[in-house]
Amino acid sequence: MSDVLMDDKKVTHPTESPDQDKPMNLSALADFFFEVGMLKKTPRSGFQFLGTGRESVADHSFRVAVIGFCLARLVDHPDPFRVVCLCLFHDLPEARTGDMNYVNKQYVQVDERKATAHLAAALPFGDELEALLDEYRSRQTEASRLAHDADQLDLILELKQQKDLGNTYAQEWMRYALERLHTDMGRKLAEQILKTDWTAWWFDGNDHWWV
């Protein structure tokens, strides 16, 4: 299996071929794909406390992956696709645990490592998934910090949209999300997001569409 140099150490590249020592278990892969599909049906539970907005974990993860790729390119990270993989899989255990918001976490301890180990056990590349999620949780590599910032920037985008639509609580939530950013580029993007109306990409300057 090939390695790439990342953050002064060698790590397994997430897009390489499965370990040849493990059998290709297509049945396990089919099960895994159905499990991943649960993320499309798993709600992001924080919105019930915000009072407006709604999205699934899969909705969230897609834009996080897009943001992660952009962040990686903006800072010239040597492996933007590793950042994408960290973003794409960062909430994968929630197919089993559900999404626990900050209130839930005051009372419930979620064993994400156990969930990850169980979902990865039969997969030919299960070790890679576990390594990716361990790296994400560690926040010790530049890639993992970029992925965490992408996670928060997606939340900030959603909160800005809800604020623009009239939810006065969204501003206070944004303050905490901003404090959780790790990188200068993440903070710069957040600053621009806060200055941008959520409809500007299609509404501003397009009066001719309406006449």
UniProtKB/TrEMBL annotation:
Enumerate the spans annotated as HD/PDEase domain: 53-165
A GO CC annotation given for this chain:
cytoplasm
Q: What class of enzyme is it?
A: hydrolase
The transmembrane segments are none
Q: Which cofactor does it need?
A: Co(2+); Mn(2+)
The biased composition feature labelled Basic and acidic residues covers 1-13
Q: Does the record bear Metal-binding in its keywords?
A: yes
Identify the SMART domains for this entry.
Answer: HDc (SM00471)
What reaction is this protein's catalytic activity?
a 2'-deoxyribonucleoside 5'-phosphate + H2O = a 2'-deoxyribonucleoside + phosphate
EC numbers on record = 3.1.3.89
Q: Which domain of life is it from?
A: Bacteria
Q: What is this protein called?
A: 5'-deoxynucleotidase
